[in-house]
Design goal:
The protein is an alpha/beta fold. The protein has 11 helices and 9 strands. The protein folds into 2 domains: 204 residues, Double Stranded RNA Binding Domain (2-Layer Sandwich), CATH 3.30.160; 105 residues, Serine Threonine Protein Phosphatase 5, Tetratricopeptide repeat, CATH 1.25.40. The protein is 42% helix and 28% strand. The strands form 2 sheets. Strands 1-8-7-6-4-5 form a 6-stranded mixed β-sheet. It has a 3-stranded antiparallel β-sheet with strand order 2-3-9.
Length: 351
């Protein structure tokens, strides 16, 4: 995955929050509990999270040599690996599926991007028994490679009616990160998941000189730490149901009833909004009736009644020809399928 953090990106992300209006529709956000990418046994409720990245004997020198060749700061990956584990801890803390604990132990690994041999069974069982955990989750590999470049660009600007040329230096930084995670069963001590992920982050900055452009780039430690946090969140999504913020469009124009209902949605009064959409179903215009039916489907989804939402969205499309309904029914079918998986995964959730 490639992530680009620029002022424009941050501004765009800010627009996802709250309500925004575009043409005849408005935007509303909702929280959805998405299923994990893999299903973990319902017997596993408590996770112990441990860092196994720090190099053991004989590995430290290799790591220093690698850092010298790739441009990494000494100790940078070690701090980023801990940040990744912290990102996983924070993400799982917000999940209803597991309880988590951080034992005061640190296991030795390779200190590089390659996995060490799996932990011995007795070590896994001992850590889990001491911490009353059902499974052990470890970060066992972490590596980052950084590349920087800078180029000059001649631009033009108007000054008192005259065209003036000037030079701008544009610096770029690209960091590729590899992270390796493992999960062990606390009872048997055997490996139950091994996952290697890659992330990339791209930054750019400008300056009046090459040195200034490079100086305006974020620090290497800051960037890699941020990537560590992102990878922690990503592994959480792999093993645990995760709350996601999703966007939904609804019709807010076309009739007085739709406009009034929009105000109710702003205050999250879905019951009153739906009452106005019911009135809009009696509108003489078929387009308005289709929009009202579509909105009622959204209200049903907001209540968690996905089956009713699908029925209403289907009717909006088939009976009234609402074009948005076709893509929305596909979204609802996917959510219904995911909900079945989610129900199975949440059987192991602690009370």
């Amino acid at each position: 995955m490639k992530i680009k953090f620029t002022p424009l990106t941050l501004f765009s992300l800010a627009l996802l929050f709250g309500l925004s209006t575009s043409c005849s529709t408005s935007n509303v956000v909702m929280q959805v509990l998405a299923p994990a990418q893999i299903s973990v046994s319902s017997d596993i409720q408590e996770l112990a999270l441990v860092n196994r990245y720090r190099p053991g004997k004989g590995e430290g020198l290799l790591n220093v040599l690698e850092g010298a060749l790739t441009g990494e700061n000494i100790g940078q990956d070690r701090r980023s690996a801990e940040a990744a584990l912290g990102g996983l801890t924070n993400a799982l803390a917000g999940s209803p599926r597991f309880r988590i604990t951080r034992p005061g132990v640190e296991l030795k690994g390779t200190g590089r991007g390659d996995f060490p041999a799996p932990l011995e069974v007795n070590i896994v069982r001992d850590i889990c028994a001491r911490n009353r955990a059902d499974a052990l989750v470890t970060i066992e590999a972490f590596d980052s490679d950084t590349q920087e470049s800078c180029k000059a660009e001649v631009r033009e600007k108007k000054v008192k009616g005259e065209t003036i040329k000037y030079t701008v230096f544009m610096a770029e930084k690209n960091i590729d990160v590899t992270v390796g995670w493992r999960m062990y069963d606390g009872q048997s001590g055997v490996l139950i998941d091994e996952y290697r992920m890659g992330e990339s982050v791209y930054f750019d900055a400008e300056g009046d000189s090459e040195a200034e452009a490079y100086g305006n780039l974020p620090g290497q430690n800051q960037v890699t730490t941020r990537i560590g946090e992102v990878t922690g969140n990503k592994y959480s999504e792999r093993i645990s149901p995760t709350w996601l913020t999703v966007n939904r469009r609804y019709y807010s124009k076309g009739s007085d009833a739709l406009k009034i209902a929009k105000r109710q949605v702003r205050y999250k009064d879905w019951e009153k909004a739906e009452a106005w959409w019911d009135k809009a179903l009696d509108d003489p215009k078929e387009k308005v009736r289709g929009r009202a039916m579509y909105n009622k489907a959204l209200a049903a989804e907001m209540r968690g009644d996905l089956s009713l939402a699908l029925d209403l969205a289907t009717e909006a499309g088939q009976k009234y020809g609402d074009k948005r309904a076709y893509s929305y029914t596909a979204t609802l079918r996917r959510r219904i399928a995911e909900q079945q998986i989610l129900n199975e995964q949440m059987q192991g959730a602690p009370e």
